[in-house]
Amino acid sequence: MDWGAPDPVIRADEHHLSIAYYLSDTMQDTDGTTIHVRDSELDVAKMALFKIDGVRSFAQTTNGPEHSCPYLDYGEGKHLGSHDVWEMQGSRKRFPLFSGENRDDFKHLIFAFHDTSVECFCKTFEFKILVASAATVFDN
C-alpha cells in the first residue's frame, strides 16, 4: 500500500521554482483497508526537493500529464528516478522565448503526481532526497 500521496509543495518567484514532495512509502503490515492522510507539519519522511533556476514558464494542471502536454512523446523522456519526473528530450511543445534565446538552452521537466502534474521550462535544475516535513523542506 502506498502510504499517502506525494503532496507536492511549490514555491516560485520570477525566475526560480522549488518543488518538494513525499516519496512513496509502502507499509508492509497493512490489509489495504486504511489510508494515511498527510500532515504537512507532523509527517517527517523522505522527500525529493527540486531547485529549478532560469524558469521561463511553468504550469500546473489537475488533469494528469497526458492532458497538459498533448504534443509530447513520453518515450523520449529521461526518467529522473523519483516518483514520476521526466526530463523531456526533443520537446516539440512551444513556450515563450526572448530575443537571442535558443530553445535548446532550456530543459523541459514534467512532474506527474497522483492527481496533478507540473510542467516547467528552465535553464538548470538540481534535486536531492532528504528527510523533512512539507512545512520545513524549503529550510534545507
Short description:
The protein is an all-beta fold and 140 residues long. The protein has one helix spanning 65-68, and strands at residues 9-12, 16-22, 45-53, 57-61, 77-79, 84-88, 107-112, 117-122, 124-132. It has one domain (9-29, 36-93, 104-139).
Summarize this structure as a short list of keywords or feature phrases:
140 residues; mainly beta; five-stranded antiparallel β-sheet; four-stranded antiparallel β-sheet; 1 helix
What is the count of helical runs? 1
Largest sheet geometry: 5 strands, antiparallel
| Head-to-tail CA distance between termini | 29 Å
Q: In terms of per-residue confidence, which ranges show pLDDT below 50 for 5 or more consecutive residues?
A: 67-75
Rg measurement, Å: 16 Å
Q: Structurally, how many domains make up the residues?
A: 1
What is the residue-mean pLDDT, rounded to a whole number?
A: 77
User: How is the largest sheet built, in terms of strand order?
Assistant: 4-8-7-6-5
**Strand portion:** 35-45%
Structural class: mainly beta
Roughly what percent helix? under 10%
Order of helices and strands: EEEEHEEEEE
Kindly state the number of beta strands.
Answer: 9
Taken from the alpha-carbon principal axes, the silhouette is: elongated
